[in-house]
Amino acid sequence: MMNAIRENARARCQWLPSLEAISTPRYQALVDQLAADIADGTLAPGDRLPPQRLLADALGVTVGTITRAYREAERRGLVEARVGSGTRVRERRSDAPRFHHLSHAADDSIDLSLSIPIPHVMRQQQLSGALASLSRHDPSVETALAYQSEQGNRHHRRQLADWLTTQGLPMEVDELLFTEGGQHADYLVLQALIHPGEAVASAALTYPGMIAAARQLGLKHIAVPMDDQGVRPDALERLCQQQRIRLLYVMPEHNNPTGCHMGPERRHALVDVARRHDMLLLEDGVQFVTAETRGTSFYQLAPDLSLYIFSTSKLLAGGLRFGALRAPAALIPKLCAALRAQCWAPPDLIAAVACQWLTSPEADSLMRWQWQEVAIRQQRVQEVLGAHQPKAHPCGFHAWLTLPDPWRATDFVSRAAEHGVTVISADPFCVGSQPAPQAVRLCVTPPADRTTLETGLSRLAELLEEEPLRVSPMV
Prior knowledge:
The protein is α/β, with parallel strands linked by helices. It is built from 17 helices and 17 strands. A 7-stranded mixed beta sheet has the order 4-12-11-10-9-5-6, with helices on both faces. The chain has a 4-stranded antiparallel beta sheet with strand order 13-14-17-16, with helices on one face. A hairpin with a 2-residue loop joins strand 7 (226-227) and strand 8. The longest helix is centred in the last third of the chain and has 25 residues, at 361-385. It is globular and about 90 Å long.
């Protein structure tokens, strides 16, 4: 009789994992198998899992084991359970905006969701000064009104190359081309160098702008498993042996969103993998840090394979929309052709203003102040939330907070908003169908003053001590 019940149940299960040869508790093995089947496409978003009693009969385990597994899967963001609909693989609503560059915080909320420069009147004053200085030089204005080469005005490229060299990032003028911000550089590289249908890779948690660019261009975006230094070389090697990966996108100084930093051995190991598999390396340097805290750039380790993105969005102002791309000489023609097709050339007026401002003594003072202020704010994060071990770079605009059990990120974000604090969950940073960890990103830079930041952090600390207000629909 028992065998007949089991065989009947197995025949009716739309998903039937195996519990043979497991070394972990059964409920955990079920969750791990569920995560693997979602990752490899065996289970698609929206697929319904078997009812708990049916799966228990099919596997010969207790209903309690299945209930615990489903609850853990829901906590990890793999599934969602609704009354009358059962438990289904969580939908990835790609048509809905998953990330934003404008504040969505309520007027009375403390916004810790955006990675932006610290607001200060110095920015407006220095921009006004740069504009006034340019207006007094007729040749500069006349040049800015004329068409430029696709790479950008050579004089301004020389200014930027010299400034980057003083920052410990030696550049040659001919290996630079200007872009309309860092996001434009991401898109330009993918469009010019990678064909639709080809694969690119990044850390499993990465910058949403790269996720959006790869999706828009019809590229296959591969998630590489991570550790506390970011992309794991051994995991990348295995993926490269399974399929052709044309480019690896990295943020070695501090990953957005996790804040992890790559050590020198990790950088050399990734270069070795890239050379073995003829893979390009795209380094995002938009999250700019001080020379003292910066490691060796990938373009210095492998100049023939590596591209480097610079932007003024974190140093001066995001609204400038000014960036630059360092590329090997062999790739410059393809990049210029793509840029010409997009916009002829980046606007020289913006380049003139950005370079005038960036290379001024006033900008140097502004950046020193900002780095010092960010370091102080990151220290406050550790003092207020240290019990929960937030991860951050001392120059980083954000911290990464893994939530304690039984908090889920979606619940925490909602409750934080109720407490007047806006934060962002891990979901927008997840590549492909990777399940989102129960974590949130906290940006320390949007508040104009430390008092406001500390108020927001204190509210989050109090919230973390509470129990989530959740009612499970599972029985």
